[in-house]
Structures are given as C-alpha cells and as structure tokens.
Amino acid sequence: MIDVRNLRKSFGTLEVLKGIDLEVAAGDVAVLIGPSGCGKSTLLRCLNLLETPSAGRLEIAGRKLEFDGTTRVPERQQAEFRSATGMVFQNFNLFPHMTVLENVMSGPLLNGLKSKAEAKKLALALLDRVGLSQKTDLYPRQISGGQAQRVAIARALALEPKVMLFDEPTSALDPELVGEVLEVMQSLARDGTTMIVVTHEMGFAREVASKVVFMEGGHVLESGPPAEVLGAPRTERLRSFLSKVE
Ligand code: ADP
Ligand code: MG
C-alpha cells in the first residue's frame, strides 16, 4: 500500500529526512516512534505532500512519484495523491464555526464527489462508528477533546482514504480521554484500515501495530514486529528511548 524509498527532505540547509525506507502492506498498522525532532511529522507530511520531498520515491495505493529537488508536482496529481491519505493531527483542527456533522460532511461536499444527502448519510454513519451519534449538532467548543479527536477521525474517513495517517493523535488529550480515541483507532485497525500512527502510547504499539518503526536523526534505526522492536531492541539508542517513554 505504501512504499517509501530513500526519501529525503531538507529545510534550507537542515536535512531532516536522510533516506527513509518504509513499506506498509494493506491492512497493516505501522507505529512510528522516535525522539522529538527526529522527523516523524515531516515524514507523514511528505506522505500526503503537505511537504514536497527533496529526493526519493513515494508510492501510495498505486500512485507513484519521484523527487529530485526540483520536482513540482502538478496540482491535479497532487490532489489525486492527497486523496489517498486521511490525516489526523494532534490538535484536531476542526472547523470551529461548523457543527460536528458539518465538519464530517465538509470534505465530501468540498470535493464535489457527493450530493448533500449522500454526504450527510455517510457522515452520520461515520459519527455512529466513532460513538458520537448523540453529538451531531454540537459545535467543537461544546465537546471534549476526546470527542473532538473522534470527530476529526470521522472527518478524515469521510474522504474514503486508502491510508490513515495519525500524528500524535492523543498527545493533546487529558489522560482520561486517551483511551476512547485509541479504542476507535483499534477498531479501525480491526476493520483492516491501513494506518501509520506516530504515538508515544507503547501499549497501543504493542497491541495493535503490525510493525514498529524507530526513527532517529532522520534515519530508520530499527523496524519490525512490536515483539522484536519493543521487546528486544538491538540498538542502545532505542533502549534508551524506550526507557524514557515507558
Ligand atoms: P518530530 O515530529 O519527530 O518531532 P518534525 O518532523 O516535526 O519532528 O521536525 C524535524 C525537524 O525539522 C525539526 O528540527 C524541526 O525544527 C524541523 N522542521 C520541521 N518543519 C520545518 C519547516 N517547515 N521549516 C524548517 N524546519 C522544519
Ligand atoms: Mg511531530
């Protein structure tokens, strides 16, 4: 589903990604871990072209792109590529002036692929799936952070992406609200959703990940099944990282 080859990204003279290789099969959950500043968000942002990679190759759900530092991806190809991924951010990023239902309907209405009635039907089904059928007419300021993040997940799903990307989806939540968001993510995983998740929730990684990827300094240092990577880290750097987050 996802094939990343030798992906590089620099901001000016700062090289943040130094040749990332990453493969994620359909239905797999890849959990991305690593110290702050190692490039996790940049990698996710490259996957949906919020950042343009400086070099390397990207393949997502059959769409392929190659970068050489001067690449300008044509608008249409960019849109096509972007539609393959749904992204969930740390801070929810809901539209404050729209109700919960309108937030979830907004994507399909904007891209013009669904009628209003179809968009509403889909949004209601997705809000039911994330356990928020009772909250459809509230505004983001009227719901909890955990509920807001579940709305954000429903909103991303409404665009029917091939892959879901989560960037520290529970980091901004009060501890007692983390579980409800992880549960929704776990249920998506059970239903076969392909996901890449940046998180410090090692319990989630252990239980849900098909693959754990440890990044440091712009490189992938270790990658494999959770039992291997988390249970028997090979590098001192990973051991040291795990001792801090667990
Ligand atoms: P992580 O998500 O692992 O904490 P990031 O991908 O956010 O790390 O950031 C990696 C590095 O790239 C950091 O040093 C950060 O300051 C830098 N960086 C990220 N985005 C930009 C940008 N748009 N311009 C310049 N530097 C950036
Ligand atoms: Mg980040």
Verbal overview:
There is one protein chain. The chain is of the alpha/beta class and 246 residues long. Helix content is 37%, strand content 26%. It contains 9 helices and 10 strands. The protein has helices at 40-47, 75-82, 100-110, 116-129, 145-157, 175-190, 202-208, 226-229, 236-245, and strands at residues 2-11, 14-24, 29-33, 55-60, 63-67, 85-88, 163-167, 194-198, 211-216, 219-224. The strands form 2 sheets. Strands 6-7-8-3-9-10 form a 6-stranded mixed sheet, sandwiched between helices. Strand 1 (2-11) and strand 2 form a beta hairpin. The model has no long low-confidence stretch (mean pLDDT 96). Residues 40-41, 167 line the site of magnesium ion.
